[in-house]
Write a structure and sequence with these properties.
heterodimer, A: alpha/beta, FAD/NAD(P)-binding domain, 2 domains, five-stranded parallel beta sheet, 10 helices, 25 strands, B: mainly alpha, Cytochrome Bc1 Complex, Chain D, domain 2, 5 helices, 54% helix, globular
Chain lengths: 423, 101
């Protein structure tokens, strides 16, 4: 008995000596730290997962209003009847398995001084670092006539779920020979090539199912992402698709829901099906936390994604002002990993590294016709900037085999990025 | 004797921790974690995009050089390769090489 007792005591002594040699985290409690992540999309779910993988001792709580996440990328395919909404839906079981604490209730308040997040279910969560990844909210005051009730007649479908299915049903119910009118907002907004991919896939649906119909895109811009690639493809594939630029009178100034009409300074466009992609801002919790500026988006430090307005709060994904990086799922995922590493380092009292990030956005012009835009980014002059020479789109003159290959890669990307986080 | 054993064991534990962290997520070099947006780990790989985990770092470096110069045809990798210096690519390649499948 005695030798055992001695060795146990010695072991404890040795362990204690060892412990004092380890760098202590810069926290009052001496614990590894408490992180709260609000928003379980591509940004928040990825961030929660990676913080836990980087340092399992950190307590990570993910706050999310919905039990099921409905992914936006590829949801244009659901609208066009090319895939089902089920393929867009993901749960949080894998994150729970990673020992991330789930709080399935919306965040309703943030106290940046007391470092407390309050949830609709009454829970109050203390944090050392708060990560907000709330995505977008619609600016309901941004387009006269476009109210929440109006969105039931003229869906935006810019948050995937019921709105996606509503737009699909409307297209399915439309007679052959009908007119679909879309409106695209001014920059910045979620998924810059998204409206044009959607237009392409709706045009594909019309061409194959309702060939006498037409599609008009009214745009508040004169230029858009992957523009020449889209326009070349439209010319070749979709003669019934018309794009009206800002300078040709494309900017929608109001909507008249009763008359199913989109109004511009140059005229009125009567629609059988109307898809209004309205102006947007950072998700509401950003405003509540005081991290959104007058633009409605959140200024951040380009290396750590920490708010420039409130300490200890980081904003990633669509809600952040990420300089040259587009508001995309790929960007949100890449930013989440950088933010996770930075937060783990900050909690341990270290200095975060200068990051480098990649974005790759695929768009489908048709089911077997993919195009891409790519960029590599790094912090410079207090912003996230493109690394010179890295950015670019697919070649304008590529064989159909290249377009088909990019469509295959687009599908593979969706499977990989969703598996990485949601399993 | 017991004390010597414990000291050795403790040293070993810290050495192992050091090794683990060199290839750990916290030590991923700049840019590395973005790659897994498309490149799945080998154990789950969808063969469409080749996995990077556990690959010979020299092969990754050679591939990136060939993408950058245009010698090896690609869809997006020619553009992505232009965003990284040779040293950055080497660091990323050696980190992925040390990752388990």
């Amino acid at each position: 008995m005695t030798p055992t007792r001695t060795s146990r005591r010695d072991f404890l002594k040795a362990a204690a000596a060892g412990a004092t040699l380890l760098p202590l985290p810069a926290l009052a409690q001496g614990a590894a730290g408490r992180v709260v992540v609000v928003g379980g999309g591509f940004g928040g779910a990825t961030c929660a997962h990676f913080i836990k993988r980087i340092d399992p001792r950190i307590t990570v709580t993910l706050v999310e209003a919905n039990r099921t996440f409905v992914a936006c990328p590829f949801s244009n395919g659901v609208i066009a009847g090319l895939r089902e909404i089920k393929a867009q839906e993901f749960g949080y079981d894998k994150l729970a398995g990673d020992q991330v604490v789930l709080q399935l209730s919306p965040g309703t308040a943030v106290d940046p001084q007391g470092r407390i997040v309050t949830l609709a279910n009454g829970a109050q969560l203390s944090y050392d670092r708060l990560i907000l990844s709330p995505g977008i909210d619609i600016r309901w005051d941004g387009l006269p006539g476009y109210t929440q009730a109006a969105a039931e007649r003229m869906p935006h479908a810019w948050k995937a779920g019921e709105q996606t299915l509503l737009l699909r049903r409307q297209l399915e119910a439309m007679d052959d020979g009908g007119t679909v009118v879309m409106s695209a907002p001014a920059n910045p907004f979620r998924c810059p090539p998204g409206p044009y991919e959607r237009a392409s896939l709706i045009a594909y649906y019309l061409k194959t199912k309702k060939p006498k119909s037409k599609l008009i895109i009214l745009d508040a811009k004169d230029a858009f992402s992957k523009q020449r690639l889209f326009q070349n493809a439209w010319k070749a594939l979709y003669p019934n698709l018309e794009w009206v630029s800002l300078s040709s009178g494309g900017k929608v100034t109001s909507v008249d829901v009763g008359a199913m009409t989109l109004v511009t300074d140059f005229g009125r466009h009567k629609a059988d099906v109307a898809n209004v992609i309205p102006p947007q801002k950072a998700g509401q919790i950003a405003e509540l936390a005081g991290v959104a500026d007058r633009t409605g988006w959140c200024p951040i430090d380009p290396a750590t994604f920490e708010s420039k307005l409130q300490p200890n709060i980081h904003i990633i994904g669509d809600a952040s002002i990420a300089g040259a990086m587009p508001k995309s799922a790929f960007s949100a995922n890449a930013q989440a990993k950088v933010c996770a590493a930075a937060v783990a380092k900050l909690l341990a009292g270290g200095k975060p590294d200068e990051p480098k990030l990649i974005n790759t956005c695929y768009s489908l012009v048709a089911p077997d016709y993919g195009i891409s835009i790519v960029g590599v980014y790094r912090p410079a002059d207090g912003q996230i900037k493109e690394v010179e020479g890295s950015a670019g789109v697919s070649p304008l003159d590529a064989p159909t085999s290249t377009r088909a290959l990019e469509a295959t890669f687009a599908n593979a990307w969706f499977n990989t990025i969703t598996t990485e986080v949601f399993g | 004797m017991n004390r010597a054993c414990i000291a050795t064991a403790t040293a070993l534990v810290f050495t192992l921790m050091g090794h683990a962290s060199a290839a750990g997520l916290a030590d991923a070099p700049p840019g590395a974690l973005s790659c897994s947006g498309c490149h799945a780990p080998a154990r789950t790989a969808d063969a469409t995009v080749p996995p990077l985990t556990g690959r010979n770092p020299a092969d990754i470096v050679a591939a990136m050089q060939a993408f950058k110069s245009g010698q090896r045809p690609s869809t997006v990798m020619d553009r992505i390769a232009k965003g990284f210096s040779e040293d950055e690519v080497k660091a990323i390649a050696s980190w992925y090489g040390a990752q388990k499948n």
